[in-house]
């Protein structure tokens, strides 16, 4: 669910830039940073993102600035009139004391503060012009959202291959654990006999009959049987492959399934009193933990 997208646009009166970032998250958390007065854009974008994104912590940033190209200008007649009145009053006062007054050049008046102003101020004040601009900004936001989704899907394709390889590894380790369990079963009888002989050598008076020995071996076999855990691990692997092949969001289901993988691996390790079986169980836990980390990246 990691991705980044940016897009710039403008309409001659203003320029804007969208930036979208997405990182891992259990649910959808959209954080917005945008200019004041664009509540309609924010509301529409949030609705679209909620409809198209299932999970992830998403940051959306919108910056709008005045277009610095060649903005149209207009004369502020009120400001010009104020400057003219002040100039005429000053000229009259100068003439009253016998001072010569030179004519005022129009370009000098134009340069007075406030006389010239951007023409788009008038257009921005109109609700129809603002609504049209908001529509353009939102369209670019949708395009940026398309790019973000494409980036997330590219990451998802890579994660699919990683997870598929990890599922294969789980199945291979289940086969390895089964072989180790068979070797342990074959070794159980001789190992128990050696323990009894060691007790005898230490002075223990106990003498086991063949029937009692068989009972002890059967009890050990029942307590240490891992066939059920291995069967469930393989069933979970099959379910994981179905999820990886499915269309639509599967992250939550996969996250739950990995917990079930881990449960079986823990039980297997608790029953493993044989070196090779313990090694297979610990390796299983390592691979499953790696799967858990990757599953949290899936929508």
Automatic annotation (TrEMBL):
InterPro entries given in the database record: YicC-like_C, YicC-like_N, YicC/YloC-like
Keywords for this protein: Endonuclease, Hydrolase, Nuclease
One MF term in the entry's GO annotations: RNA endonuclease activity
Names of required cofactors: a divalent metal cation
Domain Endoribonuclease YicC-like C-terminal: 182-299
Pfam families given in the database record: YicC-like_C, YicC-like_N
Residue ranges annotated for the Endoribonuclease YicC-like N-terminal domain, each copy included: 1-160
PANTHER family: UPF0701 PROTEIN YICC
Family classification: Belongs to the YicC/YloC family.
Name of protein: TIGR00255 family protein
Source species of the chain: Albimonas donghaensis
């Amino acid at each position: 669910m990691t991705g980044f997208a940016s897009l710039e646009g403008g309409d001659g009166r203003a320029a804007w830039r969208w930036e979208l970032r997405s990182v891992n998250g259990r649910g959808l958390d959209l954080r917005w940073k945008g200019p004041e007065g664009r509540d309609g854009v924010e509301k529409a974008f949030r609705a679209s993102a909620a409809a198209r994104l299932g999970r992830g912590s998403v940051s959306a940033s919108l910056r709008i600035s005045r277009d610095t190209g060649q903005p149209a200008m207009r004369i502020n007649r009120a400001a010009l009139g104020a400057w003219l009145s002040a100039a005429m009053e000053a000229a009259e006062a100068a003439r009253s004391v016998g001072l010569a007054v030179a004519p005022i050049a129009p370009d000098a008046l134009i340069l007075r503060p406030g006389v010239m102003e951007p023409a788009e101020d008038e257009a921005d004040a109109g609700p129809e012009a603002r609504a049209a601009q908001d529509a353009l900004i939102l369209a670019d936001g949708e395009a940026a959202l398309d790019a973000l989704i494409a980036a997330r899907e590219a990451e998802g394709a890579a994660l699919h291959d990683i997870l598929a390889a990890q599922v294969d590894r789980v199945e291979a380790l289940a086969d390895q654990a089964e072989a180790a369990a068979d070797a342990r079963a074959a070794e159980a009888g001789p190992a128990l006999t050696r323990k009894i002989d060691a007790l005898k050598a230490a002075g223990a008076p106990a003498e086991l009959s063949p029937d009692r020995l068989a009972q002890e071996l059967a009890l050990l076999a029942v307590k240490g049987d891992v066939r059920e855990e291995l069967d469930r691990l393989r069933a979970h692997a099959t379910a994981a492959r179905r999820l990886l092949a499915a269309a639509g969001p599967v992250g939550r289901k996969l996250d739950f399934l990995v917990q079930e993988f881990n449960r079986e691996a823990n039980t297997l390790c608790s029953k493993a009193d044989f070196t090779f079986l313990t090694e297979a169980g610990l390796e299983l836990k390592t691979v499953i933990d790696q799967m858990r980390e990757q599953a949290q990246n899936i929508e």
